[in-house]
Structure formats: structure tokens, C-alpha cells
Amino acid sequence: MIEKEKNQNDIIDQELLNSFGIDYIFNSKPINRFKNKPTIENINSRLNNLKEKVKNINNCDLKNNAKQIVFNDGNSNSPVMIVGEGPGQKEDELGKPFVGEAGQLLNKMLNAINIKRENIYITNVVNYRPPNNRKPEPAEINRYSEFLREHISIIDPKILILMGSTAMEALFGSKIKISKERGTWKELIINNKTFLTMITFHPAYLLRQADQKKYSWADLKEIRKKIDELKFKI
Q1: CA 161 to chain centre
Q2: What does the mean pLDDT of the chain come to?
Q3: What are phi and psi of 76, to 5 degrees?
Q4: Stretch 75-103: mean pLDDT
Q5: What is the pLDDT of residue 40?
Q6: 157 is in which domain, residue-wise?
Q7: How would you classify the pairing of strands 121-124 and 185-190?
């Protein structure tokens, strides 16, 4: 008798669901309500695909005059991402960003706010050395900014640090001046996602203009403060 009533209730319940146009399928497996960050393997796969895109770029004077691509360095799963300008001679030789004099200063700057370089992620706007270490031309910045935006989307940093006017121009345009824009937190939107961004001077500029280091130190302290507020372990 109990079994018969149970079957009738099941029928009534199903009819009720049908009356609302609900296609209901029972599954005893628990629902995973948390979306995890993409796996390191997935991130690396997407980075490799992007790197191949950059390597296959055509009609590029930067690529034609460089020894090799300089794509990235550091931890691809880091909450902090740094974007510089482009490779210099040393970077072109070794295939890694920020390994020359500017890179040595960057390491000191990071150490000053208790950040180990290997715990963050580093790339540049352009991935090939400009001839004679010249500044990338506006057309080159614009062309590579498409790759850079994809790069940022893949890493998905919680804090994005743009070092120098080229990085600033690539993502915010050329109508603003770094002297006015540095030192304050901004929001960069890529593919409907907002990235917390700090613009600061490039270490190479600081090597030429030592009197500007005090401003970079102020920026670094703001970055450290934000890292502590967000409780990132890096």
C-alpha cells in the first residue's frame, strides 16, 4: 500500500513539473557551485598558443631585426603581472624580459617591498627588440596591444602594473601623460573584465632620471599596501 502511494506521488510530482515546462532529471551527484581558476596546464597551453601567434606575425620590422622572441618570465599563476616596454640587447640575447640593467633595478625595487621576482609574472608590450633600443612606434604599439590584451586575459592578474609610457599607451591610449597618471589605481577593462591597474615609471627611465625614483618608491608602497589589503601571498 505504501509503495503504491509512493508511485502515485511520483506521478503527481512529475505532472507538476511538466505543467511548469520543467525538464527535470534527478542526479544524486553533488553540485559543484565553485568555479576554480583555470588550471596551470590550461594557462600554459593558452600561453603557448599566444606565443605561436606572436612568432607567426608577418611584416614586422621588430621581428625581422631581433634575434629571438622575448615572451615572458615568472609565475603564470601569480596575482601580480608587470608589463614593460620591450626587450633590450641583453633580453634579446637571453630570451627573457628585464634581465639587463633595468631588470637589475626592477629586482631591487621588488625586493624593497618584499616581493621575490620569481613570484610574479612579467612580459612586455612588444616581444621583439626594437632596432637600436628605440621606443616602439605607435603602429607597433597598437599592433602588439592586441596580443598584450590576450596575454593579460590569460594570466588574469588581480593587480596589473604598467611600467613606462609604452605600456600605458598600449592599454590606455596616447592622449595621457605618465607624469600625471602614475601613482593612482585605475580600472582597465578587457573583454568585460576589470583589472586593477597601477601605472609607474619604467626602471630604464629611472636609470636616466634618478631624481624620479622617489615617485616610483611612493608607487611601490601603494602596490605593497594593496597586496596586503587583498591578502596575497607572494
Answers
A1: 9
A2: 89
A3: -70, -10
A4: 98
A5: 85
A6: 41-230
A7: unpaired
Q: Cell triple for residue 93?
A: 640575447
Look at the chain and report how many structural domains it folds into: 1
33 in any annotated domain: no
- Is residue 18, in this structure, part of any structural domain at all? no
Residue 8 in domain:
no
CATH code of residue 47: 3.40.470.10
Q: Tens digits of per-residue pLDDT, 126-153?
A: 999 999 999 999 999 999 999 999 999 9
Digit-coded pLDDT (tens) for 49-78: 999 999 999 999 999 999 999 999 999 999
**Is 117 exposed, middle or buried (CB count within 10 Å of its CB: 0-12, 13-18, 19+)?**
middle
